[in-house]
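To illustrate the input format used throughout this study, we show a single complete record. The first block contains the structure-token representation of the backbone; no residue identities are included at this stage. The design step must infer an amino acid for every position from geometry alone.
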């Protein structure tokens, strides 16, 4: 079983973004005053917070902001659509020519703050809840973990952001909240994850697939520390995950993303966005929506297409795979056969393939944290502490699974570039490329070297115009 994301309409009274509130409810509806009473109430609230992953501003099927801002803005992918006024917002991301009104920025801001609002609602009340202490600890740990993840995305995308740590019931209450320094946001993230790793369970059962474990909290904290260049503590935290033996690499790269791989057998995925087909509003659509624009093929689902061309692999990404790398064919198809039997040479992602499905109804989950990421992050922390020889075996674990020979000893600078490319091909289409290039201060040099007009100020995205208009105390990022 997977987490079933409950209807947002049912929970609208508390599952609101900071600026969207329901003022009146019928007497037959649940309200905040009578909702947070039982363990089932809190469980419902926590599941609703996980549901934020499917918001359009995060990993919403096909058009999720993190797909656009994490992949299409880089040398990994492009928008394979026809340039029209309708597609302009997508090409703004590909062209690195951003407008403040672009809906991908707006949705990213709103979606993450919606998740934060949900987590805050739980955290404001869980201390007074009167039920099993173990359940209380788990629900608090989950709320803190999710709030930390939402803030971590926000601070990477936008830099200084509004720091809101309690539930807000007034739709105008955020109008005077200014942006807090990124350092304060990171301090909250670290504090939340420190609590989460102590309160979350070490093992997640199949019935609770999709929920965070203590190893998810430790892995995320390791990434948070690495992003801040706190290499020694990041290394220590990531090593805890490795030493736990709770997770490991799958023998087959393709099986990591296969709908036929059971939760019990997939020990590589530490946390994933859960998808469940069946026309219940919980299916995933990455595969069918990422197929070539306007294409029709029996492989693209029961309707045979057409594709939307989102996240089209660039020629540069295809060339980044070494000869013999099994990840290439597991991630990218370079052609398809249309309904007329004609082979069309056009690349598209197949990492999340599930043929014969109704459009948007895939069972394939979308990974957020994987053990391969832990290994490569740990290697990065060691290399940045001038221990390239210690980093090599970790990288080579990932390469061996990919069918590639071991890397041999090199300088710290050599290993930085090797890690950069290893992460690129290992996590293609998983919304990591922009975050990796930003973390390593490589976004501008990599993109400009490949003919993309990247500017230093684009290491942050613009604060959405909507937020600036609603809150005159918000300031814009330099350069926009």
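Output of the design step:
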């Amino acid at each position: 079983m997977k987490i079933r994301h409950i209807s947002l309409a049912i929970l609208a009274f508390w599952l609101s973004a900071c600026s969207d509130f329901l003022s009146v409810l019928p007497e037959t509806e649940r309200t905040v005053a009578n909702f947070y009473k039982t363990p089932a109430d809190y469980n419902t609230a926590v599941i609703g917070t996980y549901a934020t992953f499917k918001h359009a501003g995060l990993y919403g099927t096909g058009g999720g902001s993190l797909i656009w801002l994490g992949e299409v803005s880089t040398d990994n992918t492009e928008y394979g659509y026809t340039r029209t006024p309708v597609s302009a917002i997508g090409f703004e991301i590909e062209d690195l020519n951003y407008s403040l009104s672009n809906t991908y920025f707006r949705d990213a801001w709103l979606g993450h703050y919606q998740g934060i609002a949900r987590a805050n609602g739980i955290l404001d009340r869980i201390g007074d809840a009167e039920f099993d202490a173990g359940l209380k600890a788990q629900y608090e740990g989950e709320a803190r973990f999710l709030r930390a993840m939402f803030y971590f995305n926000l601070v990477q995308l936008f830099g200084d952001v509004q720091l809101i740590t309690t539930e807000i019931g007034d739709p105008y209450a955020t109008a005077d909240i200014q942006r807090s320094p990124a350092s304060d946001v990171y301090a909250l993230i670290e504090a939340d994850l420190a609590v989460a790793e102590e309160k979350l369970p070490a093992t997640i059962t199949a019935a609770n697939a999709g929920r965070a474990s203590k190893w998810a909290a430790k892995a995320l904290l390791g990434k948070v520390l690495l992003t801040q260049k706190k290499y020694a503590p990041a290394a220590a935290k990531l090593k805890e995950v490795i030493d736990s033996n709770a997770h490991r690499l799958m023998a087959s790269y393709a099986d990591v993303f296969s709908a036929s791989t059971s939760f019990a057998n997939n020990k590589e995925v530490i946390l994933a966005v859960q998808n469940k087909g069946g026309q219940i509003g919980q299916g995933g659509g990455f595969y069918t929506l990422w197929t070539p624009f306007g294409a029709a093929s029996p492989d693209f689902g029961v309707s045979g297409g057409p594709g939307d061309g989102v996240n089209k692999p660039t020629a540069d990404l295809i060339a980044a795979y070494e000869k013999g790398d099994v990840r290439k064919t597991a991630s990218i198809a370079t052609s398809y056969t249309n309904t007329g039997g004609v082979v069309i040479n056009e690349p598209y992602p197949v990492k999340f393939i599930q043929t014969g499905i109704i459009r948007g109804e895939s069972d394939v989950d979308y990974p957020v944290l994987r053990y391969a990421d832990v290994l490569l992050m740990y290697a990065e922390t060691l290399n940045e502490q001038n221990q390239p020889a210690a980093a090599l075996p970790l990288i080579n674990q990932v390469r061996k699974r990919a069918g590639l020979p071991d890397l041999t000893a090199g300088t710290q600078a050599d290993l930085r570039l090797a890690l950069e490319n290893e992460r690129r091909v290992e996590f293609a289409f998983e919304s990591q490329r922009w975050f990796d290039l930003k973390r390593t201060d490589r976004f501008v040099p990599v993109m400009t070297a490949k003919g993309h007009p990247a500017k230093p100020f684009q290491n942050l995205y613009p604060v959405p115009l909507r937020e600036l208009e609603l809150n005159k105390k918000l300031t814009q990022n330099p350069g926009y």
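Structural context for interpreting the output: The chain is about 40% helix and 5% strand. The mean pLDDT is 91.
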